[in-house]
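User: What would this chain look like folded?
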Amino acid sequence: MKYITSKDIVGVYSLEQGNLPASNFVNSIASIVDSDQAIENHAVLTSNPGMSPKENGAIAQEFREYKLTVPNVDYSATLKIKRKDLRRDKFDILRKRVMNLTAEGTRHDEELLFEALQSGTTSTTWDGNFLFDTTHQWGNSAVQSNLLTLSILANFGDIPNAERGTSANPSDTVMLSAIFQAIQNILGWTSDEGKPISPMAKNFQVAVPINYTRAALQAVSKDLMRSGESNGLLNSQFSVDVIATPYLTTNNRFYIWATDTAVKPFVIQRELDDKISVLDESSDYYFTHDAMLVKIENSKAIVPINFPAITCVTLTA
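Assistant: Here's the prediction, encoded as structure tokens.
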């Protein structure tokens, strides 16, 4: 019986990489930029000037510029395959494991983005504030917040107490109201020139912890809420997709962002795309250890860039 070889492994990896579907989550929240050095220095430019009557004369305004330094991080995942397993793999499990390894780069992008969301209340961005903060301000902008804290008792007065649930298990009615408040927050952001930043945003994605799955899905899809009222979202101009993920471990917090803005909330800076390396049958390692090593590596960084397009919502008692 012919067993899998290093050439088969590289062939399977290359074929699967070419067929790998894009991550809807990654594409909705992040843009990809190329990098060719260990550390990149970016200039973050603020908003365009607004239109004014021509008879007032041409008033040229420069962009306000902020500096952003982003170091790349090297990542790798290594699979050790014993010679005896190569020989005994009658169920073709090793080939499937290599296929799974092909998707590791995309899965890792998703993991890092969820980590960036969760650390957003303690990690700084280009304006000197945390990604999610109550004191964002630049240029002549007002002080603005993308960090909402909503009390189940105090902020949902139009919903009967018995129909609110708890901060860790909200009702669909409370979840819908919280989503609408977050959308309102995103639409209300203004630039350093006092102009709305995302006034026409209509498409949103919300990421929730596993315990919010039912409430979130019902909030964006049910015709009638628990309260008996019709779902205002379904007949509105807005569309909201839900991502429920175990990567979000805070059980009373969710994140929502606009997916149709020109600049996405995050940037993935990529110096090295996913690359496979194999210590194969001809290597000293194989001779000494009766095993081959298969390594997938890349170099990248994930950085928040457009905080006005994203909001963090925490529900409290």
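The chain has two domains: 6-117+266-303, 133-265+306-316. If you want, I can go into more detail on any region.
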